[in-house]
Structure formats: structure tokens, C-alpha cells
Amino acid sequence: MKKHTCKLLAIALLTSLLLFMVGCTENTETKVQDENIQTIEAVLQNALTGPDDELKEIFNGEGSSIEDLLQYDKDHFEDYFANETSYMEFVNNNNGSGILIEAMKYDYNFKVINIEYEKTESEEIIYDFTVELQYQKEGSESSEVETVTGQANLNEEHKIEDMLIRIGDFLGFLIN
């Protein structure tokens, strides 16, 4: 009987240890994933919500310069990118304030309603995302929602190495 009790105790201890280890691993992975998502979300919110008063002032204000716009992008995006190259690639591909400037040209306001994330099966840290983007013509009572997709590649420090926001067709639709 004593031998049987020892076996049950050993099995219970091993099971508890295994569950504890699995729980710790999942918590670590979830925390890392949350930090990656926070980075992506910050960039998407900055790129797709607005234009804010600061950007309107830079774009429409007298005495504003290209340096003001460059500083705006730097303040809102640079910290989220892995290096200068990845940051410059993002803003130079008409992302960053470029999306909101296009909206502003045609008197639209954008607001991110919801973002869904899915980590890809890749060994690299890559997330696909889908954004529900509300858009409204300045002075209009009604608004509509468009779906925008994209992908972000991050490094171990939760910084973006490459990001693509697929919004081109939608912006073309607004212009017409």
C-alpha cells in the first residue's frame, strides 16, 4: 500500500511540475506577443487615426516646412522601428503621415475601430493584421468602414523591421 501511495504522489508531483512549466512558457510567449502587438498597434493608430490638429497645422500652416513634417513623422513613428533604414522605408513608402495627408487633401478623417492580429507560422516574428477603418467626409454626418490589411515583421526587441499597410486601393477610391 505504501508503495502505491508513493507512486501516486510521484505522479501528482510530476504532473504539477509539468503544468507549472507549461503555464510559465505560455505566459512568457503571451507577454512577448503582447509587446509585439503593442508596437504594431501604436504605429497603426498613429498612421490611420486623424489627421490630428498638429498635422493639419503643419500641412496648412504658413511658415511650416518639410522639416516640420519630418519631425512629425519622427515623433510619431521612429521609436517603433528597429533602425533608421526600416523607419525611413516605412515613411518613404507613403506610410506614416502620408496616409493622413492623402485623407486631408480630400477632406476625410480616419479612425481605427478595431485591429485583429494573427501571428504567422513563420520562424520569424511576423504578424498579419486587419484594420477596420472608419472614414468620414469633413462636415458629413455619416461615416463608412473599410477594411485595410497588412503585415509587420518584428525583431526580438519588439521593434518593427518591415511593415506594409495595404491601403492603396482604398485611397484611390476616396479620390474618385
Features:
176 residues, four-stranded antiparallel sheet, 53% helix, globular
Tell me what the structure shows.
This protein is an alpha+beta fold and about 180 residues long. It is built from six helices and four strands; from the N terminus they run αααααββββα. The chain has helices at about 1-50, 55-60, 65-75, 85-90, 95-105, 170-175, and strands at about 110-120, 125-135, 145-155, 160-165. It has a four-stranded antiparallel β-sheet with strand order 1-2-3-4, with helices on one face. A hairpin with a 5-residue loop joins strand 3 (about 145-155) and strand 4 (about 160-165). The termini are far apart.
Shape: globular
Strand content: 15-25%
Point out poorly predicted stretches: 24-28
Distance between the termini: 83 Å
The number of helices is 6
Order of helices and strands: HHHHHEEEEH
Q: Strand order of the main beta sheet, please? A: 1-2-3-4
Biggest sheet architecture? 4 strands, antiparallel
Mean pLDDT: 86
Oligomeric category: single chain
Give the beta-strand count. Answer: 4
Helix fraction bin:
40-55%
Gyration radius (Cα, Å) is: 23 Å
Structural class: alpha+beta
Set out the fold topology.
Blueprint lengths: L1 H47 L4 H8 L5 H12 L6 H9 L4 H9 L2 E12 L5 E13 L6 E11 L5 E7 L1 H8 L1
Antiparallel strand pairs: 1-2, 2-3, 3-4
Quick structural summary:
This protein is an alpha+beta fold and 176 residues long. 53% of the residues lie in helices and 24% in strands.
